[in-house]
């Protein structure tokens, strides 16, 4: 029996209950959401070799630390060219993806010595096929930026095998030395933003209807050591002035082209609020900062908040305006650090206190999120993280039922049932969905939550189970992503007490939309048998006989989506009849169902 009691409405669903958490893991940013196609574009990834670059047509290439573009980009690529067709190629992130009838924005800084001829910029297949080509002027003796477009014809294939090539053109002036740096190639981006994001991945995030964007990490925020932290001041301004940093937590270079301005623009484009995680003086291998030494880090956080929220007349607000966004961004929640329970030195108490005092003094309206309990200062939310088996997640649907409401409210800032690679299978999605029934039921106390990690490139699946995966050309939603979309888009504003009796494997929650009178009964069946269930609704006079069921299910718990079969597990919508305040419904095996009922 499943009973719903509309006489005793429960919590109002918090407006920020469901968000997203983005960090650069599994090439989520570089080679992923950040649409740049050239890998190691500014030669900063490795001081020993020009990774991802190769010589063409008898040229020799080398890193040149004596020919920096500026104080941020301290190395360039020196190319000794030896005749026509001589130059260098970049192989991108597991190849440069090419599509038919597409315009690419290319740019680079170049200079020359001895070499006087023009260049050719092209997208070339490994077999020599040229997919797009454009002529480029002869570089002069001093650094200069060049902007070009490359356009593929309608007959071009969709392939991930291309390289970007820069070679000498013509037959004269083709010997000598060329230098290149900040070599960039962008396909069309989301909303056509310069230095922008990949449209299909942004559309995938928009489908999740996030209320907020937690960023930039996660371990990515902290780095293995302090020097590798997300040092936001080095991630703003023109991209050729951003040195980049080692993403030591996840093992690759970050250009910081996806920097603070881009994260904020991303939140705005997704129509959601940024939730900022500030670096709080602790890095993953245990380095931590206390006392006087903490001051600059606290100041960095204050400046960061001014960059985000200050008027364009304030010093850091002016920097934001110069970066293209004169209007301040909204900001309500700031998280101090990440997973500081790992800091066995116990320094979080002191570190949190220092950030708390400075931040609340300057920005008293801000709400602070602590990452582990603190005694000496208050916090508005505590961030809790859960990575467990699908079964543990299904059981966890009741975790917060028992939480003492006198304790601080909760932000579940990272959670995910762990099964499936690179994305969760149906069993994990069911665990996730059951867990979400518990989050919604307890949303008087758990007021924000977001799944993690969001993204994995299929070629760099460091963290096993991620919500959405992709290669250079295409992407797909996992069953868990569909389950979350289903539960988020079929939800009312008030939780109604819902009880499931004698039905092992079922988790349920009901919400009511007071504007439309609709009831949304969300039921997860983690079991392998269909469950025929009597449903009783008390406290509502009439329920219209017809409604709809939104159902996500699959042939078995291992069913999953992949790049080659992206729609193996997708939701379907079916009409319902014979509804009322009492009816019977059979919840399919391995399913998430939302019954949409119209109450009178
Ligand atoms: O989501 C992956 C990692 O898990 C995050 O970077 C970290 O906060 C957690 O340990």
From TrEMBL:
EC class name: hydrolase
Coiled-coil features, chain-numbered ranges: none
Keyword Disulfide bond among record annotations: yes
Known EC number: 3.2.1.55
Superkingdom classification of source: Bacteria
Molecular function GO labels: alpha-L-arabinofuranosidase activity
Ranges of residues in domain Alpha-L-arabinofuranosidase C-terminal: 413-591
Catalysed transformations (reactions): Hydrolysis of terminal non-reducing alpha-L-arabinofuranoside residues in alpha-L-arabinosides
Keyword tags: Disulfide bond, Glycoprotein, Glycosidase, Hydrolase, Signal
Family: Belongs to the glycosyl hydrolase 51 family.
Protein's recorded name: non-reducing end alpha-L-arabinofuranosidase
Parent sequence residues shown: 269 to 868 of 868
